[in-house]
Amino acid sequence: VLRQLNLTDAQQAQVRTIREETRARAEQLRASGDREANHAQMRSLHEESRRRIDAVLTPAQRQQAETLRAQARTEHVARRVTHLRESLGLNDSQATRVQRVFEQAATRRQTARQANPNATPEARRTAAQAERAQVDTELRQILTAEQMTRLEAERANHRGREGGRGPGRHGGRRGQPGGEPFRDPTKMAPL
User: Fold this and answer.
1) Distances 68 to 37, 47, 75, 99, 108 between C-alpha atoms, Å
2) Which of 13, 48, 58, 95 would disulfide-bridge 90, Cβ 3.0–4.6 Å?
3) Are the beta carbons of 154 and 14 closer than 8 angstroms?
4) What is the pLDDT of residue 88?
5) Residues 16, 190: contact at Cβ < 8 Å?
6) How many other β-carbons are positioned within 10 Å of the β-carbon of residue 11?
7) What does the pLDDT read at residue 113?
8) What per-residue confidence (pLDDT) applies to 190?
9) Residue 53 and residue 125: Cα distance in Å, rounded?
10) DSSP label at 57?
């Protein structure tokens, strides 16, 4: 997103400094070893980094960044629907309705994050579980019983491959040798 905002040289330098500071703090968190506490702190670090970078941007750039973020969310929903169309054999009507469900869910999540940016990890987890339950309820009204069963099996297979919060599909834990790379907030799109 930042590459598309035409940042000045001064803005680029400020963003580079913010990212370097964030990267250093992320390394310190990873070195501490407390995975559950690190998860919450990494999320907080990512949000702080994003706020600091937003402060560097002009109002027009912030607006453009939000537009680009919304576009990225829309593209993500479209990819999910395309995947489900192929894996579950959705017809056009189902695909349209599923896309609407996913878009509405994404909007609700975004609104909730903006309304409560300092929510605890437990509160976020509870909200995410409630949101997933609502999406599932809506999907059950759209999908056939067979399609829903296949979706649930696909999800279970995905969780098994990913290993949940435990060992990843590469045999180790995220961020450790043999595991998936740790998701460094400095390498995530901050905008």
Assistant:
1) 31, 17, 10, 19, 18
2) 95
3) no
4) 95
5) no
6) 17
7) 80
8) 43
9) 26
10) S
